[in-house]
Amino acid sequence: MQIIRGRQAAVGVVAILAMAAGTSPVTALDPVQELSGLGQYHAQDINWHDCALGPDDTTGHKLDAAGAQCADLTVPLDYSDLDGRTLTIAVSRLRATDPAHRVGPLMLNNGGPGGPSLDMPLTVGAAMGKVARKYDLIGLDPRFVGRSTPLNCGWDIGSTVFSAGKGRAGFKQSVARQRELAKRCRETNADVLPHVTTRNTARDMDVVRAALGAQRISYLGYSYGTYLGQVYTELFPGRTDRMVLDGVIDPARYTQTLLADSTDANERALHAWAAWTAARHDTFALGRTTGAVLATVRGIRQAAAEKPLRVGDFRVDEHFVPLVHFSGLGSDSGTSRTELATATRTLARAADGQHVEPGAGLSELLAAMTTEAGSQQGSAQAAILCGDVATKRGTESYWRDIQAGRKKHPFAAPLSYNITACEFWDAPAEAPTVVDNDVPALLVNATGDTRTTYSGARQVRERWSRSRLVTLPGAHQHGIYGDYGNACADAQVNAYLADGRLPRHDVSCRA
Question: Which regions of the chain are under pLDDT 50?
Answer without folding.
Answer: 1-35
